[in-house]
Amino acid sequence: MTETPNNSAVVPPAEPGADLEQLKAQVAENWDKFLRATADFDNYRKRVAREREELGRMTRESVIGALLPSLDNLERALDHSAAGTALHEGLLQVQKQFARTLGEFGLVEIIAKPGDQFDANLHEAVSQIESADQPDNAVIEQLQSAYKLGDRLLRPARVVVSKGAPPAA
Amino acid sequence: MTETPNNSAVVPPAEPGADLEQLKAQVAENWDKFLRATADFDNYRKRVAREREELGRMTRESVIGALLPSLDNLERALDHSAAGTALHEGLLQVQKQFARTLGEFGLVEIIAKPGDQFDANLHEAVSQIESADQPDNAVIEQLQSAYKLGDRLLRPARVVVSKGAPPAA
């Protein structure tokens, strides 16, 4: 039994002239091949199911992540339009609709409020300033919101923090 | 050979006391099982590769399709802001950035121009009006652009067409 049959096999199922023991060995070998092939198939099927979920998530992350600067800039335009004008109201509707649509795909804004403890999992400190009324490593001001997609951080909030010793690891 | 071994098989590879002919048959049967299992696996692998591409496309279509109303409304807000103002320029930047980002994922705007022949693959006629200077079934006005994602129509253009006989099928 030196030949290894492959898938496009021209190898006959049983070799001519084989004796009882050789045939028994070949029965066992072919059976093992079958079992291994079905086990490989099962494992592949499980991996594919995980990858399928992962792929949908990654595609959403890539599209929605790429749109966050547009959302930021829309909010900036909104801040610069005079409240009460028709244009401001129109922009507000656009911004709400945009955020709501992204929210339906799992986007969640996380706002860092002044006084929040700095959290390296959510915040990126862009500068530190001394503060008389804030403890060390507190958020002084948020420059840009954090966003999560589902339970994954899409981008951290950009914050200014109060000066002090670095937070304990 | 009445038993059909399955994957969790307790069936022995070769039945005790089997004679030469029975063993040959069992060698052949196990070999066939192996071939069928690998063929199934191959087919599944090919199907998965197609589905993977399809899934990425469908996810992009669903996210980007859902954002088209935001893009429309942003363009509407832009049309309502006074040209030359800082706000108008700001909105223009937001709209360009938004459209460019979606364009990077394959979104293409298709504009129906007045005089274009009505095309059921690209246009949705929302009304028909009589026109002295347009042939039958020509686009009079576009109310909303069509968008394609890659080579697939994401939504048709909404158009007003000139009155006349229905186009030949």
What does this structure look like?
2 copies of one chain form a homodimer. The first copy, chain A, starts with 19 loop residues before the first helix and ends in a 7-residue tail after the last strand. Chain A is an alpha+beta fold and 169 residues long. Chain A is elongated, with a radius of gyration of 30 Å. Chain A contains 2 helices and 6 strands, in the order ααββββββ. In chain A, 47% of the residues lie in helices and 18% in strands.
Provide the descriptors you would attach to this structure in a database record:
homodimer; 169 residues; alpha+beta; 3-stranded antiparallel sheet; 6 strands; elongated; disordered C terminus
Topology overview:
The structure is a homodimer of 169-residue chains.
Chain A: H1 20-80, H2 86-104, E1 107-110, E2 123-129, E3 139-144, E4 146-149, E5 152-155, E6 157-162
